[in-house]
Amino acid sequence: MPPRPRLLRTLCLAAAAVLSCVLLTGLSTAAHAADPVDAAKALAAPGVPGANDWSCRPSAAHPRPVVLVHGTFASGSVNWLTAAPALAARGYCVFALTYGEVPGVPVLRAVAPVASSAGQLATFVTGVLAATNAAQADLVGHSQGGMMPRYYLKFLGGAAKVHTLVGLAPSNHGTTLDGLATLAAQFPGALDLLNAGCPACVDQVVGSSLLTTLNAGGETVPGVSYTVIASRYDEVVTPYATQFLSGSGVHNVLLQNLCPTDVSEHVAIAFDPVALHEVENALDPAHATPSNCLSHG
Predict the structure, then answer these.
(1) Cα(35)–Cα(16) distance, rounded to whole angstroms?
(2) pLDDT tens profile 97-154
(3) Which of 212, 259, 260, 271 has its CA 20 to 30 A from that of 131?
(4) CA nearest neighbour of 57 among 91, 14, 8
(5) Torsion angles phi and psi, residue 208, rounded to 5
């Protein structure tokens, strides 16, 4: 016999309730999985003093959060031990990520293909903006971290979300295998990885398809301010002048023009007080002060 009308209504209501619960649970799970702040937190570098305070809100004096982007073989946790607390002490909301992990490669980071790493940067910046309620961020990058964001700006929609890009010894026009070997020698296990296969290293060799695509049709994008800080003693990205960019909105700085006795090389420039003073000038040009040998970040 068919179910009675009352029983049928009861069964239908129960089924509808179960279906609604399943749908709501699925939507909640999907929303949580897609939460931009959670996605950014998953990339945040641990143990960086002054960085990754997700409750930080930019001030009127410093309205944009600063995202720090480390270099090849390094991580956010080791690259920014000086710069992050210095910028935080100046009142900036500072965030640092670690990107470019390759499965099966321990410790060493920023070794994945540059395009893939740029996608991770895009995820991180989106989450930082959501957490801070800011419209744009400023980026400060070292080595690959000064070049890779340009891929994000040019091809992944980053130009609308970034006001300023500051590159410390960036590999904007690539380096040689000798230069990469020099860098790798400073990180245990990196030379073996370089010999076995390092996608980011291939992308950063002079004349690579990645760099050819990146620099074609103009090296900058409209609306973004660029500062490049280089050292004549750089032994990784050589000649040092290849780090400089051409185009509108570019300010190229040679460290030794500010302090002739500064001997910082490729790695040390990320910790150099004169270079960090120039970073602060680039982030807040309205209050910039001349850099010299007595400057400090």
Answers:
(1) 28
(2) 999 999 999 999 999 999 999 999 999 999 999 999 999 999 999 999 999 999 999 9
(3) 271
(4) 91
(5) -65, 160
